[in-house]
Design goal:
The protein is an alpha+beta fold. It is built from 15 helices and 18 strands. The chain folds into 2 domains: 12-92 and 167-263, Rossmann fold (3-Layer(aba) Sandwich), CATH 3.40.50.300; 292-444, Arc Repressor Mutant, subunit A, CATH 1.10.10. It is 40% helix and 21% strand.
């Protein structure tokens, strides 16, 4: 089989290939306010290493990755590739996206050739290199197929071929396996690691964003952990385990535990305290994307578990088949609402959480409603506005425009949708999606 590899230096400690210094990134809200997404990020990527980037939702992982490859310009700070400033996409770096990002009207071969065509590579050489890359990632025979003919795993293989065909020094990956089923993701991860270990790809360093802690420990030599809102680098964990790595090995599980411990332990940054604290008085508080049924299910599981009211987060993630984003969304919601506390890799139910777990459905709704009104300012605000209107109705857009004073349009829409779902469960208000209007329940006016 054809190889694309060139010799790769493995002495990563002495060979910085990509560096970031004091990077900050802000976006403008529709009202012109600055929304800080990344703050004071400094890191290095060395030759011969795979680095995974972990963080909760809102930590800016994808924004950082796009800043590194030049798709987004930082507000301040520098990004340098081989000591040259990165001011836009440049030769030597390639990216694999979560969404495959293939052109549906082009064949597999034509999709893979695109990057070479943009670089001005002659047609003959372009065709040869694209065929080599397609063969390398296991899609030989599908050169003339269109994306709609391929499974998700095959489409992501095309994404890898399109990135590798340019012989990148640095390969950046934005959750490349998250859109795939478990078995396909496992196979593709193993194949990529095999190509890397056997030096059959030219890439000298890999930086990947993931929301799966096990995936990070399986693949990476180093794991960088970001705090959230704004994203700040709080830890760099070296993974000194031989490959292939055994998920069931005690050393592997110990690394998992350590990462969960780090991600749930308050960290003091100069001038900032990283903790799961919630400004209950602020409408601008982003709400965790948590389904109520799942959150209550998690609380029930902790209440009935071996330690009755306390549990290990990695164990819960395995049992409930949750990745880190989904798990932390549930635990953050439980903490926001005063039902639980997460520290040092464990979750502990508070008295109100135990009460919620042991109540019947109607009692739960009442408990939930009381906690929503006292701990989520947006829900209390919606209820108050509806109560003060003569017809007890208000359009969704009325609250959305308020939230956009504090956050991006996307975050505002997500936060309002979550508040509406929680408020409906608690029977604090109703929502007509066809009209886009909220109203008090008939017995709540």
């Amino acid at each position: 089989m054809t190889t694309l590899a060139t010799p790769r230096t493995t002495n990563g400690a002495d060979n910085v290939i990509l560096s970031v210094r004091d990077l900050r990134k802000s976006f403008k809200t529709p009202e012109g306010n600055d929304l800080l997404v990344l703050d004071n990020i400094t890191l290095e990527l060395h030759e011969g290493e795979i680095v995974a980037l972990l963080g909760r939702s809102g930590s800016g992982k994808s924004t950082l990755l796009r800043s590194l490859i030049g798709l987004i310009s930082p507000s301040s700070g520098t990004v340098r590739y081989r000591n040259r400033p990165v001011t836009g996409p440049m030769p030597g770096m390639a990216m694999v996206f979560q969404s495959f990002a293939l052109f549906p009207w082009l064949t597999v071969l034509e999709n893979v050739e695109l990057g070479l065509e943009a670089q001005g590579v002659p047609e003959g050489e372009r065709r040869r290199r694209a065929l080599d890359a397609i063969d390398l990632i296991g899609l030989d025979g599908f050169e003339s197929a269109y994306p709609k003919e391929l499974s998700g795993g095959m489409r992501q293989r095309v994404g890898f071929a399109r990135a590798l065909v340019t012989n990148p020094d640095v390969l950046l990956m934005d959750e490349p396996f998250s859109a795939l089923d478990v078995l396909t993701a496992e196979n593709l991860r193993a194949e990529l690691l095999g190509l890397w270990e056997q030096r059959r790809i030219p890439t000298r360093a890999i930086l990947m964003v993931t929301h799966n802690i096990e995936e990070a420990v399986l693949m990476a030599d180093r794991v960088l952990i970001l705090a959230s809102n704004p994203g700040r680098l709080i830890s760099s964990e070296r993974i000194d385990l031989p490959r292939p790595r055994d998920r069931e090995a005690a050393a592997f599980r110990a690394v998992i535990e350590q990462i969960y411990h780090t991600m749930t332990t308050p960290v003091v940054v100069p001038g900032v305290t990283e903790d799961v604290k919630f400004d209950h008085a602020s409408l601008g508080m982003r709400l965790p994307r948590a389904e109520i049924a799942q959150m209550i299910g998690l609380i029930e599981r902790v209440d009935t578990g071996p330690d009755r009211g306390r549990d290990d987060l990695p164990t819960l993630a395995d049992e409930m088949q949750l990745d880190v984003d989904d798990l932390f969304s549930l635990t953050d919601a439980a903490e926001l609402l005063g039902f639980a506390q997460t520290r040092a890799g464990d979750i502990t139910l508070l008295p109100e959480g135990v009460k919620l777990a042991r109540s019947n459905i109607q009692e739960r709704k009442q408990i939930f409603a009381e906690h929503l009104m006292s701990r989520v300012a947006l829900v209390a605000h919606i209820r108050r506005v509806l109560a003060n209107r003569s017809d007890h109705r208000a359009p969704r857009e009325r609250f959305l425009s308020e939230l956009e004073d504090y956050m991006s349009e996307e975050d505002a829409a997500d936060t309002l949708d979550i508040a509406i779902d929680w408020g409906r469960y608690a029977e604090l208000f109703e929502y007509d999606a066809r009209e886009g209007r909220l109203r008090l329940p008939e017995n709540g006016a």
